[in-house]
Amino acid sequence: MKIKTVEIEGKSYAVLNDQGLPLYVHDDGKEVGFDAVQTVAKIGQLNAEAKNHREAKEQAEASLKAFEGLDASKAKQALQTVQNLDAKKLVDAGEIEKVKTELTEALKQTYEPQLQQLTKERDQVQNQLHQELICGGFARSKFIQDNIAIPTDMIQATFGNNFKIEDGKVVGYDANGQKLYSRTRPGEIAGFDEALETLVGGYQYKDSILKGNQSSGGGFSGQGSKSHGPKSLSECKTKDEKVAYLKQATENQ
């Protein structure tokens, strides 16, 4: 990206946004104010994290030196032998496996129903969280309200799988499985609307889902022309083709 400038009396000056930040132009034409103070603070934070990781690694390596030359498989075998010797004090060596089996079955009957119930409750909570954060994000999205011409549920069907819940927050991912980072807040994860705008900007059929000529500005790099798609809904082979076909059919009514 490069800084946006203006020529005045033969001299170049940086263009500032409403917050007094110099504007930089990304490769797709989107203009973003560069907050140098926030960026320097973020770099300092990342450097501190890197230092903590390095120190933890060095500490772990130092701890492992105590086990240099130890054969892990032989150590496990020796521990198993000791365990069997201790068990022999209680039961005959030929009965050890039987005792283990009976104990395992008893524990399974006692705790498996509780584990199943806890798993069910966990899944219900996860589904509720998914509904509130991701589905709610689509429902409340200002970007969708201002820029998208098709129903919200169709946009969610197209891009819903690009969002995941991590540490209680919605995180967007691109088609290559890479996290989407903010352009206005360097080093930070992109918010829901910013991530969705990026996904739509790279969408093959964006011209069919954007309002009016939205695809020709605001960071969108599409051609703005309608493609000659399938002639009927039954001819659509993919979900994206169905979305584009339904959008075009709605406009032609």
From TrEMBL:
Any single Pfam family the record assigns to this protein: DUF6651
UniProt keyword Coiled coil, yes or no: yes
Domain DUF6651: 119-220
UniProt keyword terms in alphabetical order: Coiled coil
Keyword Coiled coil annotated: yes
Entry coiled-coil feature ranges: 43-70
Region: Disordered, residue numbers: 214-239
Protein name as it appears in the record: DUF6651 domain-containing protein
UniProt organism field: Acinetobacter pollinis
Lineage: Bacteria, Pseudomonadati, Pseudomonadota, Gammaproteobacteria, Moraxellales
